[in-house]
Amino acid sequence: MTFPLHRPRRLRRSEALRELVRETRLSTSGLIYPMFACPGNKVRTEVSSMPGIYQQSPDQIVEECREVADLGIPAVLLFGLPEHKDETGSEAWSPRGAVQLSIEAIRKAKLNLLVITDVCLCEYTSHGHCGVVKDGEVLNDPSLALLADAALSHVRAGADIVAPSDMMDGRVAAIRAKLDDNKFTDIAILAYAAKYCSAFYGPFREAAQSAPQFGDRRSYQMDPANAREALREVALDLEEGADIIIVKPALPYLDVIQRVRERFDVPVAAYNVSAEYSMVKAAALKGWIDEQRIVLEILTGIQRAGASIILTYHAKDVARWLKKC
Ligand code: PBG
Fold this sequence. Notes:
Bound molecules: ligand PBG
CATH architecture: Alpha-Beta Barrel
Radius of gyration: 20 Å
Helix content: 25-40%
CATH topology: TIM Barrel
Strand content: 15-25%
CATH superfamily: Aldolase class I
Mean pLDDT: 97
Strand order of the largest sheet: 1-4-5-8-9-10-11-12
Order of helices and strands: HEEEHEHEEEHEHEHHEHEHHEH
Number of domains: 1
Largest sheet: 8 strands, parallel, barrel
CATH class: Alpha Beta
Distance between the termini: 39 Å
Structural class: alpha/beta
Number of helices: 11
């Protein structure tokens, strides 16, 4: 005996009722806004495949960060472009790098904003891979010290959290040890634990000028077909000292987000990556979709799957829309 006793529509009759019983409440307080820092002064270049997203010099980064903080977004994630690329990506740990200078400028402006930095080498290496390359191979162990140096330089400049995205084995442990040796025991690590080898990073590689110059990232990023392996990757990163973990990309991996959420008791973040953003933007610019409803539905879906933190290029728009709701 269900109908007519049970009528689920009773709770859908008005917005007040729907609001009362809503299971997932999207909030600006869980958003992280990714940004691209480049060398120079007064530089602000729009990324053609990511409308509304810019490569910016540190002085401009601070100005946008002011806006981000005013919107109530708690954190930014900084990526960096170097002046020159080389074999080892040595500008990644330069105290005069665009990321390091941006952090210092944000600190000086005393903004109410957490500064998270992406730790990787691909933007800085001439070959565009996330680690050291020898004879056409991406070497794991020799890359670890370089990644740790990059993380330390970000923290010295004033970063609150470091986020390794390289997918070398053992990098969380190497970074944790390096930070602890330098008395930064309280700086958290946001690990890209389950990072898939994805075509959804395409527009980002234009933004960060980080496309690999030969081959691809299949020998270090995860195979999109694997979900159980994601649980293993997360377990290993947590054992090595990760504080928060990321599943990336978000939309094609909602099952992975859900399984990670169920298995582990740490904050779970999801990265709504560049092509997820670009596809929505392109369709919205053509007038084919309702951008606001589509974005809120996508982010609600990511949160419903189990991510309490979402890294998204839509963060500023979402903060504005949620303020009006
Ligand atoms: C660097 C890195 C990438 C992204 C974040 N960190 C690109 C890649 O691995 O090729 C992608 C982010 C996005 O697409 O928005 N390793």
